[in-house]
Specification:
single chain; 169 residues; alpha+beta; Yope Regulator, Chain: A; 40% helix
């Protein structure tokens, strides 16, 4: 084979291998409850790992004196804290003394980009308001620790603003 035909083939092979490795790395980015618990502790918060009603991992914590949970979705099997998951969700809920106008929630959701909020009445008749932020990990090339911290800050600020918006003390 002539030398000039080997170089294009070699370059094509290198390109294919690089793209394959890149795609594998991109698809492989996931997050675990153990990583989230470690990050919360490093940020000075408590972190308790348990499982939700579906058997998926959940991390419970307190932020600014309020209960938060981090739920995980589409997880691998294995030990609860080590399961790698495609996505996660920040969640915080508040029991409110009285209902507030639906326009309050609608206005808040319209003005906020990342977080979503809603209100509802529980079976026991208590009024509740919730705020959530969903985060997709798989298919990105994002660092799970940096992504968690960025969205943690977004949730912390959003939750504070939401509590003010609904008049929650």
């Amino acid at each position: 084979m002539k030398r000039w035909t080997v170089w294009p083939l070699a370059a094509a092979l290198v390109l294919m291998v690089t793209l394959t490795v890149s795609k594998a790395q991109e698809a492989g980015v996931r997050i675990s409850a153990g990583l989230v618990a470690d990050e919360l502790r490093e940020l000075g918060h408590s972190a308790k790992i348990d499982q939700d009603e579906s058997g998926d991992p959940r991390v419970n914590t307190k932020v600014d004196g309020y209960d938060w949970s981090v739920y995980f979705y589409d997880c691998s099997s294995g030990a609860l804290e080590a399961r790698t998951c495609v996505s996660f969700q920040f969640y915080s809920g508040y029991t409110v003394a009285k209902t507030f106008p639906l326009q309050t929630i609608n206005k808040w959701n319209t003005e906020k980009r990342y977080a979503k909020a809603y209100s509802y009445m529980q079976r026991d008749g208590t009024n509740n308001a919730r705020i959530e932020i969903d985060v997709l990990m798989e298919g990105t090339q994002a660092d799970p620790r940096q992504t968690f911290r960025a969205y943690f800050t977004k949730m912390k600020n959003s939750a504070e603003g939401f509590r003010k918006a609904i008049g929650f003390k």
